[in-house]
């Protein structure tokens, strides 16, 4: 069974349970290009030897490296191949990990209904196979999917439950994830002091556990709060610069793009609209290259607001916001959709009723 136990790892250090089999020695901080190269090498060796279980394990690491690098087509093929190999080997735990990877990819691509289905199956298989780690990761994936949709009431309790479980098992990486998720919900509902405290705890926990990825995300959260709450542009940008270094070192394409998008937010809040425009444009290109619809839509929103502040025709801004509203509604991102409505009011081009009609009408003019 493809199972990573806590007894095999120091409890005070972060580890990557998705790196299994021949790749089990890889660090959580290994660069994704290194993971991909070694994963492909070991996967081919397993294929030559006809070792289905090892194919599943190595294929999981390959799928995750492709996903985090934004190469979604290759990631989709890799997680499915990992699942097929796990099924051929009769390894329920490895099947669960492959489904977790597929569900996480589906969320990244904006296919939230598919993400729910795959992650739910992964959690069930993890429980059936006795792998508490993949079960926890899958439940966390379900919680995160609900959180990015803005369904805080439904997933808030699950976040707290997973945080307690992670702390009890000494899983530093998962503890950091849960802290960041809870912090983000507090931030989005205006509880900035609580959000900041949780993001700072996450950053400290990640630093102590040598989890550079988790710390980079936590620093991004801290930067967001000190920007929106305190207007501290200098500190926010310094935190984002520190986080960006880790993202670049580890080749974290998605995290880097979100870092750039947040940098655009900081510039926008400070009234630095030209800088915000340029930064959002950069982030938008990065998200489009990865085919990540959520990041793409959020960058488009920031860019539209910046252009409006720089004198763009209000009618063009209205059309752009209407298109974004429709896109976010289709994906199911309610919180982000509400952000579009707030932007329309802020810029004096809203409200935006009858979204589809207005977009179609503008396109025929």
TrEMBL record:
<dbReference type="InterPro" id="IPR019734">
    <property type="entry name" value="TPR_rpt"/>
</dbReference>
<protein>
    <submittedName>
        <fullName>Tetratricopeptide repeat protein</fullName>
    </submittedName>
</protein>
<dbReference type="InterPro" id="IPR011990">
    <property type="entry name" value="TPR-like_helical_dom_sf"/>
</dbReference>
<dbReference type="Pfam" id="PF13424">
    <property type="entry name" value="TPR_12"/>
</dbReference>
């Amino acid at each position: 069974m493809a199972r990573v136990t806590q007894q095999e790892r120091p409890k005070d250090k972060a580890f990557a349970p998705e790196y299994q089999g021949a790749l089990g020695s890889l660090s959580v901080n290994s660069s994704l290009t290194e993971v991909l190269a070694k994963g492909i090498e070991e996967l081919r060796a397993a294929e030559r030897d006809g070792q289905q279980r090892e194919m599943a394990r190595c294929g999981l690491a390959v799928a995750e490296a492709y996903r985090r690098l934004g190469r979604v087509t290759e990631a989709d093929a890799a997680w499915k191949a990992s699942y097929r190999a796990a099924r051929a080997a009769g390894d329920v735990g490895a099947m669960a990990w492959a489904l977790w990877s597929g569900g996480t990819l589906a969320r990244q691509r904006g296919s939230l209904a598919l993400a729910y289905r795959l992650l739910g199956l992964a959690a069930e298989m993890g429980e059936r196979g006795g792998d508490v780690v993949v079960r926890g990761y899958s439940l966390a994936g379900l919680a995160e999917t609900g959180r990015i949709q803005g369904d805080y009431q439904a997933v808030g309790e699950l976040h707290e439950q997973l945080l307690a479980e992670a702390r009890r098992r000494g899983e530093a990486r998962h503890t950091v994830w849960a802290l960041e998720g809870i912090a983000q919900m507090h931030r989005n509902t205006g509880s900035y002091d609580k959000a900041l405290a949780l993001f700072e705890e996450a950053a400290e926990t990640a630093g102590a556990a040598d989890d550079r990825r988790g710390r980079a995300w936590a620093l991004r959260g801290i930067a967001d709060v000190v920007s929106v709450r305190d207007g501290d542009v200098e500190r926010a940008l310094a935190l984002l610069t520190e986080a960006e270094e880790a993202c670049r070192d580890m080749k974290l394409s998605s995290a880097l793009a979100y870092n750039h998008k947040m940098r655009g937010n900081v510039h926008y809040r400070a009234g630095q609209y030209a800088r915000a425009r340029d930064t959002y444009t950069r982030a938008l290109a990065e998200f489009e290259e990865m085919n990540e619809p959520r990041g793409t839509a959020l960058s488009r929103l920031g860019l539209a607001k910046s252009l409006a502040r720089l004198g763009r025709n209000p009618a063009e801004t209205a059309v752009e916001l209407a298109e974004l509203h429709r896109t976010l509604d289709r994906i199911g991102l309610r919180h982000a959709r509400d952000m579009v409505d707030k932007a329309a009011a802020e810029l004096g081009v809203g409200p935006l009723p009858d979204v589809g009609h207005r977009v179609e009408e503008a396109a025929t003019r």
